[in-house]
Amino acid sequence: MRAPFQEGDFPGPVKYGYLNVGRVEAGPPELVGRTVFSLYPHQTRFRVPAAAVTPVPDGVPPERAVLAGTVETALNALWDAPPRIGDRIAVVGAGAVGCSVAALLARYPGIRVQLVDIDPARAAVASALGVEFALPVQAVDDCDFVFHASATQSGLRRSLELLAPEGCVVDLSWYGDEPVTLPLGEFFHSRRLTLRSSQVGVVPPARRGRYTTGDRLALALDLLRDPVFDALVTGESDFDDLPRVMAEITAGRLPGLCHRIRYSSHRPGTAVPSADETPLESSCSPSPSGITS
């Protein structure tokens, strides 16, 4: 589960990050001057192979394009378990990934979508995305699909409880080395329930003949033309404030979904790239979000 271009190992020291949007300074002529998305640790300027960047489409602000990796994860989950018109769906866990799933589901006709979280404040985000909100004890059951993204045992258990007979939980969570205990005796077999994983590392088999991972990322960026995704950005800080910001997020004093980091105050110098590498000046990137289930 190493991030692209990661250096070091946990618990530290480690150079870790994920989502970046920047401007290409030098490299292939067709990319020079373009705004592109890439996966790279927090850094004001870096050099990557040209194949590691994806141009941001016209009409997608760079500030919103930082969500591309998160929306790509949500898109892959919907490919893993394609919703159908008339389905009843819950999304358990209103973090950045869960909210991205809910935002995409809100576009489907004739679907009932409910975003479920323990934090009542996430009701405002659900409203902005155009879906219903519920606390776990209030969530409506009889669901055809539940997309689980809380990364908690309690969230996964509640997801199973919300299913109708023959229903399916699609689990997007990463639990690390934490064991998870589930009630697979009670109603799991009698209702013929399904629990399946979704992971963005590969394109689902049903789409693999048509889409590469690069095609999927390009589609995610195109979906970000919709300004509704701005509701997922809940804060912004300068790069120099990153040590303080990361400490506050880790301690739970700075809750939110996507917290962007601005790199614009750091002006890069001159770079001489190799033929297959592209130096970038990063404009903004989200740090790990304070996600609750």
Structure report:
It holds the Pfam family ApbA. By secondary structure, the protein is α/β, with parallel strands linked by helices. It folds into two domains: 7-64 and 224-287, Quinone Oxidoreductase, Chain A, domain 1; 70-202, Rossmann fold, CATH 3.40.50. It contains eight helices and 15 strands. The strands form three sheets. Strands 3, 4, 5, 6, 13, 14 and 15 form a seven-stranded mixed sheet that branches. Strands 9-8-7-10-11-12 form a six-stranded parallel sheet, sandwiched between helices. It has a two-stranded antiparallel ribbon with strand order 1-2. α2 crosses α3 and α2 (68-80) crosses α7. It is globular, with a radius of gyration of 20 Å. Mean pLDDT is 88; it is low at 267-275 and 281-293.
Gyration radius (Cα, Å) is 20 Å
Number of helices: 8
Which class do the helix and strand fractions yield?
Answer: alpha/beta
> So, CATH architecture of the largest domain?
3-Layer(aba) Sandwich
The beta-strand count equals 15
Instruction: Domain count, please report it.
Output: 2
- The level of helicity is 10-25%
* CATH third-level topology of the largest domain: Rossmann fold
Q: What is the H/E string?
A: EEEEEEHHEHEHEEHEEHHEHEE
Proportion in β-strands? 25-35%
- The poorly predicted ranges are 267-275, 281-293
Q: Major sheet, described briefly?
A: 7 strands, mixed
